[in-house]
Design a protein that fits this description.
alpha/beta, eleven-stranded mixed β-sheet, nine-stranded parallel β-sheet, 27 strands, binds alpha-D-galactopyranose, binds zinc ion, Beta-galactosidase, metal ion binding
Length: 668
Amino acid sequence: MQSPFPHILYGGDYNPNQWPRDVWDEDIRLFKQAGINSATINVFSWAKLQPDEETYDFSELDEIVEMLSRENFDIVLATSTGALPAWMVKRYPEVTRVDFEGRRHKFGGRHNHCPNSLVYQKFAGRLVEQLARRYAGNPHIVCWHVSNEYNTGCYCENCEKAFRVWLRRKYGTLEAVNAAWNTEFWGHTFHDWDEIVAPNALSEGMDFGGLRKTNFAGISIDYDRFLSDSLLENYKLERDIIRKYDPSTPITTNLMGTYKGLDYFKWAKEMDIVSWDNYPAYNTPWSYTAMCHDLMRGLKGQPFMLMEQTPSQQNWQPYNSLKRPGQMRAQSYQTIAHGADTVQFFQLRRSKGGCEKFHGAVISHSGSSETRVFKEVSQLGAELQSLGTTLLGADSPAEVGILFDWDNYWALEYTSGPSVDLKYCDQIHQYYRYFYNRHIPVDMVPVDGDFSRYKVIAAPVLYMVKEGVAEALEKFVADGGTLITGFMSGIVDQSDNVHLGGYPGPLRKLCGVWAEEIDALAPGQQNSLRFPDGFTTPCSLLCDILHLEGAEALAHYGEDFYAGTPAVTRNHFGSGTVYYVGTQPDEAGLARVLGLLAETAGVRPLLPEETPLEVTRRVKDGKEYLFLLNFTQASQPVPASFAGETDRITGSPVPETLPPYGVLLIRR
Ligand code: GLA
Ligand code: ZN
C-alpha cells in the first residue's frame, strides 16, 4: 500500500502555546538534534482560538504553523474540539455531558461534551470551518487530527431524545423494539416512544461489585451502539468540513486500542488512516500490546499511525514506571513491525503544570539534551532517518484471523452470569498469545470480514452471532477453512436474545456438538482436561457440558459429575474442520489444542526454530523484513537461521545473542 507520508513521521504532541516564545526556538533546535521531523499541534486550544462566542483569534496558531513550516516540519494539525472552553459551558450548560450516574458535569476536565448537543455541534463545526479555511493548502500539513481520543458517553435528556430517533430508524416500530428487547420480561413493555429512557445507573444499570451490568442487555447494547454512532457523527461533521477545503490530506482521530466504548471497525470506515495511542502499563504483556497493534491495523487492513506513546513514563496509571534503557526503542520498533508508518510521542516538551507534569516527554523539566530519554529519542531519530522509506506502507500478511467485535465485547461483558470473570479481551488475548509466541502472524478480523483470506479463523467467546455470521463461517469451513471456537459462543442474537434450540445455537451444526449446561468455576476451583495420550492439564472459569453430534472428542473432563464427558472436540464440515474448546484450558492445554490445529491447517511460523524473541514480519516490494525483538529479561540466542545476515538498522552482522530490548531487522 502507498503510504500517505513522505517518510516515517517522527515527532508528537507539541504545545508551544503553553510556553513563552524564547522556548520555541530552543524547541526547534532540540527537535532537529533529535531527528524529529513532525509535530502534532493545536490539540487543546479551543479556549484560546475562540475567547468568546463571537471572536476567533488565530494569531498564535499562525505563528506556530509558520514556524514549523519555515523549519520544514510535517504538521499534524488537530482541531481542538476535545475540550470545551469555559465560556461555552457557562453560557450553554447543556454542552457538557451527563454521566452514567446521571450527573450533569460542570466545566472542567476534557472529553466532556454531549455528542448530541446542537450547541456543541454548531460551535465545533464553526471552529473547524475557520481552521480548515485558514490552513488547508499548507503543504506542511500532512494529516488532520480531529478532536482527541473520543470517549465516554452521555445520558442527558437530549441524548435520550436522539436515542429514540436512532431507534425509530433502526427498528421502525415500537413493536419491533419491544420484541428485540424482550420487554415482556419484568413488564417493561413500551407503549410510547417517549417512555424509553437512557439505560444508565438510575434506569437499567446494575452494579455488580464495580462491574457495569444491566437488567436489559438489549437496550444497553443498543445505547452503546447509539453512543458510538453519536460520537462518530461528531467526527464526520468535522471531517466533512475539512474535506470541503482540503481535498486530499488524510484525516484521522486518535483511537485507543481495545477501548470498549466505540465500535472502531465502524469508525475506521470513516477514517482515511487509523491512528492510535499506545500506553501499555509496566505489567502489560508484550503480546497484548502486539495484539492491540494488530487490531488497529486490522480496522482498515492497512498500516496505521502511532499517534502517541510516552518516551519514558505515564502519569495516569497507578504505578508509572520508567521505560528501561532501550525499552522505548524496542517498543517503537514493535509498533513499526506490526504495521505503523509513524512513531509519535506524547509529548515533545514536558508540562509545567496540570495533571500531566509527571508525564514523560522528549524534553524534560531540566530542558537538557543530556538526559537519557533525550539521547534515546535522538538515537531512534537517527535510525529512522537512515531507514528512510524502506518500510513505509509495507504489508503484514497473515494466515490466521482472530475475530474481534465490539457488539460482542459489550454483550459478553453485560451478561449477568455465568461468571463475572469473563473478560472479552482476556479471552481473545489467550488465543492471540499462542500465535504470537509461535511467530505465526495474525490479523484481527471483524465478523463481517473476508474470511477466505485465511487458513484459520479463531472465534473465542463468539457469544453474539449476528445475522449472516454463522452462514459466513459455514462457507469458510465448507471451503476448507479451519475454525476454532468454544464456550460462550453462538448463544445470542444482535439483541442479546438466546438462539433457541440448544447452544451453540447457529454454530451447533458447524461444531457438531450440543452444550447442554454451562458450569461456572469460582476462583481457585479447577477441573482438568485429559487427552488420550495421558496428558492432563487444568481448566477453569467455565465448563460446557457437551454432547457429541458428529464431532470427535480430543479431550475429556477429569473431575466432577461430568468427568469423562467431552471438553474439546473436532468436527469435519464440508472440506474443513471445526475445533470446539468447551472450557478455559491453562496455557499448556490451549497450546496443545492450537498446536494440533496449526499443524493440520498448515499455518507456518516465520522461522523454523523456537525462540523467546518476538518475530514479526512486514513485506514490501517482494521482500520480507523480519523484526526480532527481545522483550525478555535476559540475553537470548539469535536463531541459527539468521546467522550471516545483516541487521538493517545498524548495518552490522547479526550477533549471536540479543540483549534485553535488543532489536534486529533482517531483510530476506
Ligand atoms: C492521551 C491523550 C493525551 C495525553 C496522554 C497522556 O493519550 O490523548 O492528550 O493526555 O493521554 O498519556
Ligand atoms: Zn447528551
